[in-house]
Protein: Protein misato homolog 1
Organism: Crocuta crocuta
Amino acid sequence: HFAGFVGAHWWNQQDAALCAPTGGKEPPAELCPDVLYRTGRTPHGQETYTPRLILMDLKGSLSSLKQEGGLYRDRQLDAAIAWQGKLTTHREELCPQTPGLQDLLSAEGVLSSDGTWRVKSVPTGKGPAPLTTATAPRPFIPTGGSIRVWSDFLRVHLHPRSICMIQKYNHDGEAGRLEAFGQGESILKEPRYLEDVEDRLHFYVEECDYLQGFQILCDLHDGFSGLGAKAAELLRDEYSGRGIISWGLLPGPCGRGEPLKNTYRVWNTALGLVHMSAHSCLVCPLSLGGSLGLRPEPPVTFPHLRYDATLPFHCSAILATALDALTAPYRLRSAPLPMAHLADMLNFSGKKVVTAAAAVPFPLAPGQSLPDALVQLGGAAAWTPLSACGSPSGTRCFAQSVVLRGVDRACHTSQLAPGTPLPSLLHACTAGEDVLAQYLQQQQPRVRSSSHLLQAPCKVAPPYPRLFSPGLSREGLLVDGPLSRPSAAVESIPVLGALCSSSALTRALGDLAGELSKLDVRRCASFLAAGVEQAELDEALQELRSLAQRYQSGGLGD
């Protein structure tokens, strides 16, 4: 499912940053990986470093990945219990290749004789630091087929307690699908799943020195919307006072050709936003689509990306890159902004739903100063919106958190010769952090802002798709002429990401409520049969309207 695609790309990017070479011109480790990773030890004494993660998915979503993972298995025991009886072989045709994916599957690595995936040395001859068997990524072996599930390209080992399979629903096929909010909500009402999730939660929570809170990544358009909402309620009840940030993922634009599917999609989205905002500190829909409602809008565009909006593999990679920047404030090694504090800054007056925007990559030329780049970028309208709420033009921002990654310290301030007239106030700042703060103040006066400037870029190593237009250097900088490289050479990029409490939500949520009020959900009897009553839909519709009204342009006290 789509949230799994986004999560897999995100973990791959974090893993690539962990495995990056140290020394030389590499920037210092500004992000603390221990916020989202944990150390462990296998029964054989090997040290491990795995995501602190509980992942719930459906039958058929694991591909070749084992539910218990591969780090902690006993190879001698596996050999001892090898099947000695008769075998029946079943032959299945390969899935047809997806156009444009064939050359995306050529991950730059080799499988060594001990089963460890080793990344090839880069052309300069400076390869990455050696990886131990226990911490090496999962092999990503090209098969020539299309990427169907997130586990096809996940390079990170998972802990045996991470994956919780939902056996009653299927990933593929027409029958047994998790397609309605009520179905997902009912999963965590069943004792076997509830107790299983609680046990996994306690395992991870009890080893934390300082528990900031929880992040929920879930699809908004299908039954996982209900599962995510119920998970947020569980976390709020059991860990009151901790931060809970929910990221609601939506795939690319949907067409008009499937009215029943679209009806399910908009109701699942509305119920998810309403229920998750009730139980979370902050909720952010993430999508490359142009609208939350039934009316199809073209997908968003990026000046330096060439992506296919119909491929989850592409869309999820872009959203994961934005997510890696948006979550940086509470992952900082020095002076982090805790999750709960970030949420409090953005969610005042009940505005718990926020929008996201990003510049992927942030347009920066080699040696260009940050003041010059920001003046050239222009206002916030130059950022690409990522929450399916339409263009930010003409809207008001009430509060924002902005992160800019991948700007070398030598370029943080103006490099003009003494006595040269200053092109802008940004060129008078003496620190990069002041430059970014001054830029935000100019673009959004009287707006509550938090900004962070990081040197480390976002890693886009394979199996990240090759989305970049020609004219980008290996570091994702804008170059022309003979220094220009093909897009396949891009290994890291500067990224700007922003979370905003915006009046755009008045229109987006209001339009969604208006469309839902015109739908006769009784024609979708299966949606009501899945566990949601008509009274609950009426109440959610009223709450959605109330939520929209909170973002009407006005003062901070609104």
Notes: DSSP finds 13 helices and 16 strands in the chain. Confidence is low (pLDDT under 50) at residues 76-83, 92-145. The two ends are 37 Å apart (CA to CA).
